[in-house]
């Protein structure tokens, strides 16, 4: 072992094996690189933001479980050897234990990052095992050692290891959700045992020895006595406090903390009296002194809180104290100790040591000031801006030191390699491996989490006008209530989330927005967006989802939900499945929604009709508040209506602007399908030329297989060829009837709906119920003609208009009924199979609202209805 | 939309490039370099490692990187990925993370070459392992991308 203590310290262990150089030296450098690596990962994650709890948890644990735990393990082993005058432990075993610990830590962090509680549980168990292995090693070292005056101090390390065993087990219970029933108690015990036991004990124990060394003073004679007394108090306090916290009884917990505080103050007084003997201070001594001071302040503040607040409120109230301890004590001790130890460990000879020291001391007054200024900014109840400044200061201090450390370590490393050949496996692969795994874990975290911006995803669109439902949601006792929310599809859902718990929670919706982390009593509004499919929501604080903090947002049966069936018809229990997933037709259309014009343009004068038709994919509002990416001809569903007379020529240039093959088939033309109806690839175009030899209401549609999908996704339209001598009427409308399938085009669930004939809605002109919201217009006494084409892809239509009688029916090229026929017949329905077309005419007798429907009532009530508003 | 088309070839080039690069690193660090260390004299070993590293670096810069970048960008364009889409949870976020990790891996690989040239052997080794594990992470994220 290298000389740890300068010669002036008379109680220093002899520099035995000091000639044993490069191996351990480079070993130390490797181990310190691991520590520096964890600090860096923690800083990067912290800089990435605390917007969601997993990141916050992760940065905290990267620092405490990663960096601090490694530092304690590495240094306590190092000091134990020095204190006991023991031989060095077997390097291979020592490395294996360290590697095992780091793999275990990675498992814990990875488990939380990837939301795999089982992995976290296994990792926590492995951390416990690694620390137990290390404890065994310390004990065995003690047996073989000569012992020394300060052998007592190793007890601090052993006690600390036991504390981590308890703390890690508690952490495992928390993170996996197994301890959900007693979450508050476990959390408080976890925090206290780990921070005051696993971190606090080694810090105090080491300071007894390190403090005089840093100050370059003789150790005081009473040191051993004080250390023994102090350890007794600290341990008794810890045990009592932990038991009290776990049992959820405040008084013994506070009493235990008081005893712990007495032990700490006892030690601190000794440190203080030592300081007074020295007037000039090094960076390390200043940082260690400040750290001790903050440690005492934090424990006393904790004691005040624990004696005055109920345990259930302690967790949130304790947070400033935790930051105080984290930044003021833990981070500062880490920096101070590294400042002192790295030159000792890495520097060769007094000159080498001085070089390293000089590098590490660069700008130290600024760093120490920043760090200690940050502590009150973070701990006191100041405005948010102050907290941000505090974090920036603390982050800058730690980051600048990390850079200095890394530069020193990298340089030493290179030199030691040049100087002598390596005699044992280097630690470079381990260090590189740690860096690689940390990078990967961070990337996985980035990949699997959502940011803070509440952006509804998928087909839902977030605008103000559609039907909105606000639901109050309470978070408490590891539950989200209500546990399920059922809403009609198409509802814009707003959650008013209140955290009624004492601990912090949030709520995040699957593939969607999340609330910020809420303190107890806080409320946040969460705009989930339009609900088109079942979604889960849960609290993202690690362990809470596993403990049962989940909620399901499910789609409710449309008819029951909207109560649209008036008039006492309660027979809707027999509503077929087809409507259960349908959109909410009573919802409002989004603002700016333009209904598809149903007015049929008059026949032009030209005898040749040229049209450039682009196949494009486009988001279209297919039902109130529900937008879906559709496959279209010309950007609309249905595609543009073509109208002409018998004998007209149509020249259509189809341009494929999509990323898949499409084609077109005009029923109105007669020609060999091979060329014009072929499938063209993306960016290709074809010209489809036909002469309309026959009158009728014709369908055109995509000719590419599977046509069920191409038509079901919107690729259809109408061609109207007037019969000769078609009488002039006052109004002419065209309605293309079809079925609507919600979902992602091409997805298996979407295709399954089509193949099994389970549409979400039946629609006129592409959008469900649009003419119920925006009625067609006519005046009393006017004569109107309705062209109807059944586009399918599967169902036909029974077109009926409530309150009218059709006096003219034209179906598939023939008049079935004429207004002036002597038979005085009337018709009630124009029935069309999929792919057929025709028209009906009627005269509106008086002002009123005339509903037109597909008289298959399943279809009518699921979107195939509209209104003609007849008024003067 | 069905069968083997041009895009299948692009995907093929992308996947094969990744396989060659990750596999090359694995073969170098698990098979070739350990053997070289054991079987060659120190001088020969030094030269061998240097030459092997230089050749693999050349392959990376001249073939692997251009192929991956071109095919990757092409596929993203084909799939309609936009800058905004990269921020969306799910496909976009995973792709963004994969790109970030890939960039980090390339930086590590570049630094590895630099460290090697400066005879900082240990640093170079550490960076090589970082790059290797990071590349495996990239593959992991690639397999996590929803199938297209």
Brief summary of the model shown:
The complex is a heterodimer of chains A (872) and B (148). Chain A has 872 residues and is of the alpha+beta class.
Overview features:
heterodimer; A: 872 residues; alpha+beta; Cytochrome C Oxidase, Chain A; Immunoglobulin-like; 6-stranded mixed beta sheet; 5-stranded mixed beta sheet; 27 strands; B: 148 residues; mainly alpha; 0% strand; elongated
How is this structure best described in words?
The complex is a heterodimer of chains A (872) and B (148). Chain A contains 20 helices and 27 strands. Chain A is of the alpha+beta class and 872 residues long. A six-stranded mixed sheet of chain A has the order 18-17-20-25-22-23, with no helix packed on it. Chain A has a five-stranded mixed sheet with strand order 19-27-26-21-24. Helices cover 83% and strands 0% of the residues of chain B. At the A-B interface, α14 and α15 of A face α3 and α4 of B.
